[in-house]
Amino acid sequence: MEGEKMTYKFLDKVDSPADIKKFSMEELRALCAEIRHYMIECCAVNPGHLGSSLGAVELMVGLHYVYDAPEDKLVFDVGHQAYAHKIITGRREAFRKNRMKDGISGFPKRSESEYDAFGAGHSSTSISAALGFAEAAKQQGLPHKAVALIGDGSLTGGLAFEGMNNAGASKTDMLVILNDNNISIDKNIGGLHEYLLKITTNPKYNRAKSRVWNRLGDGWIRKTVQKFVSTTKSYLVSGSGGHLFQAMGFRYFGPIDGNDIEQVVDTLRKLKSLRGPLLLHAMTKKGKGYAPAEADQTTWHAPGIFDPETGMRQKSRKGESRYQDVFGEVLLDLARKNDRIVGITPAMASGCGMNLLSSEMPERFYDVGIEEEHAVTFAAGLAAGGMKPFCNIYSSFSHRAFDQIFHDVALQGLPVVLCLDRSGIVGEDGATHHGCYDMAIYRTLPGTVIAAPKDETELKNMMYTASLAEEGPFIIRYPRGYGEGAPWKESPYSTIEPGKGEVLLEGSEIAVIAAGPSANRAVEAALRIKEETGWNPSIYNIRYIKPLDEALVLDAAGSHSRIMTIEDGCIKGGLYGAVTETVAGSSSPVPVRPVGIPDTYISQGTQEELREECGLTEAEIYRIIMEEKEKISKKDEKVLEN
């Protein structure tokens, strides 16, 4: 019956990891199938990161079957693959509200569950964190194990290699599981891999190996034999990259079929008793068990709403452009006109719209992997070499590259264009992904331009303006999602001078200074007020957070009783900070009321829900303006009484 919850023979019995330890291997296989079905059922109506989690089900079940969380620490990288973990650890019903307002987070979150050992929303942190857990257990004399689960994409991040380098040198007991879902297991050499796996994980082999090393002592004979064994083993598994991990101090095992629950459990059981830094290479299939997700892994990483029976996805809003679409098309068009323009992305080509450039001009497109720091310094090198790089990074991910933006771009005045996609309230991905802090962070850097377009046309023209800039960094921030419906494709290119805002609506008493698309909501609220009362505030579109249009701000302060600032960013240090600094030093100081993201971490929810919470919707802006108007009226009444 429609709306009736499905029942699951095994999954419905699982309220904690202890429950799955009672299952036989056949029952575990059935449980894995049920978990996949449940994830598809839930994510079809409540979208999430589906593909990675479908591929990692057996790894999650196997880990909880063999290890004893929460005493043993399971540390996830990013958390895209953690859905089965959440379902197993007492959040089965809560998963129906995954990523929803007042529901559970789509990522591991320490405050949510004792089983979420370490929070994660961005990549390459798991190895360093797991090493910390392992060392903490050793310092306290605890027998607890530490396991890091990292994907092949996350392994490209520099922090992952820093963690591996330290862990390998420290000889600390820990396990890193490399969840490799990029390629299938090579059937032709599968037998050899299984043979190597059985030998390297066999307890008798490892006990004998330890005795041999102990008897050889620490002299040249032991070193010679070890070198021979290491070289031979590295040669045998060189096709899977084992030699790299062994060179960093890890004992390498695998690859195994990470979607074979029996092999996963058997391998983890054997590895659990081994000492030192270990790396298990598990091959999985992204989207495993759901044909549409297996066939198109990029789309089904986060597919949105879909029909679980047919795989048909909900169509996008017809005729409207997302900001990422505008960026992608404009960048390609500018590159056609200027052969010095190149595009750089840290593994977000389709997400930011740069796939258009990569398709038509692959020689001028660089996907550097999940390496934000490298992306920025690489862009700086390109700029110093005479090119015009457009480097697109999601706003919250750009924080990692602050040092490079400062030292390598800003300090040297290099003409790098940094396009910060997903600025402001992002939505269901929550606190780790909201682009709240870019204005406050980068406003501190001398010589930096920070642009906040109010619509698609301004984004287009700010990109054009940035392409002509001879110094940098030139930062353009814009939100996730659809634009305002502005006719950007038909409009010709024009420059928008940095540091010059505009008046959108002339009024009196209250001056509203807004940044980005929030300016449109302010205009809508002001027009409704005018229709209802005959009065309206003035609305300014600041356009640039830095350099700030100080003349505009001072004019607003001199001709109005008070100012409101509106920004889709953190209030502290952003537009509000810039305006109050300017007003405080003027001859016409007036009260300034901020509207924006408060000094707290905003959880998950739809963009509309969270913008309402922060006062950024038309209705909330209307209410706040009327509150300020009431304050002015009461103040005037008191003056008349006196």
Helix content bin? 40-55%
Structural class: alpha/beta
Report mean pLDDT, rounded to a whole number: 90
How are strands sequenced across the largest beta sheet? 7-6-8-9-11-10-15
Largest sheet: 7 strands, mixed
- Beta strand %: 5-15%
| Spatial shape | globular
Intertermini distance:
71 Å
Number of helices: 26
Number of strands: 17
Q: Give the low-pLDDT segments.
A: 183-193, 228-240
Characterization of this structure:
By secondary structure, the chain is α/β, with parallel strands linked by helices. The strands form 3 sheets. A 7-stranded mixed β-sheet has the order 7-6-8-9-11-10-15, sandwiched between helices. The protein has a 5-stranded parallel β-sheet with strand order 1-2-3-5-4, with helices on both faces. It has a 5-stranded mixed β-sheet with strand order 12-14-13-16-17, sandwiched between helices. α4 (57-66) packs parallel to α12 and α22 crosses α26. It is globular, with a radius of gyration of 28 Å.
Offer a quick outline of the entry.
The chain has 26 helices and 17 strands. With 642 residues, it is an alpha/beta fold. The strands form 3 sheets. A 7-stranded mixed beta sheet has the order 7-6-8-9-11-10-15, with helices on both faces. Strands 1-2-3-5-4 form a 5-stranded parallel beta sheet, sandwiched between helices.
